[in-house]
Amino acid sequence: MGKDIMGGFWTLGSVFIALLAFILFGRNNYSWRIFVLIAASPTLLGGILVYSFVPESPRYLALHGRYQDAVNVANHVAESMGYSGEKLTISEIRDHYGHLTEEKNYLIQKNDNAMKKIRDLYGKNLLLHTTLPLQIVWFAMSFGSGLCTWITKLFEEIGLSDIYLQSLYFALANIPGNAMATFLVDRIGRKVLLFGSMTSAALCLGLAAHGASDAEARQLQVILSSCAFHSFLVTGWCALSVMTSELFPTSIRGTGMGVCSGVGRIAGILVQYVNGAFIDQPLVLLLAAATCMMTGAFAPIVCRMQDMTDKHLFEIPSMAMGVVEGDGQAVHKIV
After folding, report:
1. CA-to-CA separations, 35 to 4, 9, 45, 167, in angstroms, rounded
2. Which of 147, 160, 259, 326 is the least crowded, having the fewest Cβ atoms under 10 Å away?
3. At what angle do helices 151-158 and 219-247 cross, to 10 degrees?
4. Would you list the DSSP string of 219-260?
């Protein structure tokens, strides 16, 4: 739920950029420099706010012996969520994390050895059922998302009128996508939501390609199917973000998220070359993105990826292996 709410601010940013382009370019003729200056302002503000107000993780603080700071942050977060029970104490934190902090040399070696963490990601415990399918999905989603960067130019090539207005509609489609993810992610599960959103997005691209073959007669079909694609794409990203953070064990979660994000960046780079080469052939672009997303949608099913909805998370990679080979239930609770 929290990740979906945070994703809503991505939606606000997308709508803000589309509205800014509509005002500066669609209804006026301002310089692109003005656009870039205004567009970059929220990033600077966000960085300042995060540095000033977002606390460090209590777990991180506890692992580094900063028990009082860990207690303060944990209790503050609990109170902000409406918790009114007994407060966490330093002795409780020390009892749970003290032995890890005392093993300082082991802890530093374990946490700082990036290569060991990467080996764990691609080891037998995680490779086939977690790391590989997640990377395939990240690649497919990032490849499909590449269309969003080119959407204004794509609308122009298809022959739509008032392309900046259509791009604003496209950005506004973020809103139902986030709402759908927030409502369904805990009700039907992450895996089902991811599969449904990716296949639906691919089908919408197929409808957009069909409409683009005769854009003059099917302009409304192109616009509606493009907006529906964007909604399902956003829903898929929300489900994927939650799944990725839940499936990787705590000890290597940051590394796993980073590696998957890196695969997505590679796809994002490659798709720019593909889009640039075939931008004058909208049907090719739309069908290529649809094929990639449809293929990625089946990776979690073929690879038997776990769905961690309403389950406890893993602490170490070997526990993930036990769940895959066992009864599908994680038995270790993370504090």
Report:
1. 28, 20, 17, 16
2. 326
3. 150
4. HHHHHHHHHHHHHHHHHHHHHHHHHHHHHS-GGGHHHHHHHH
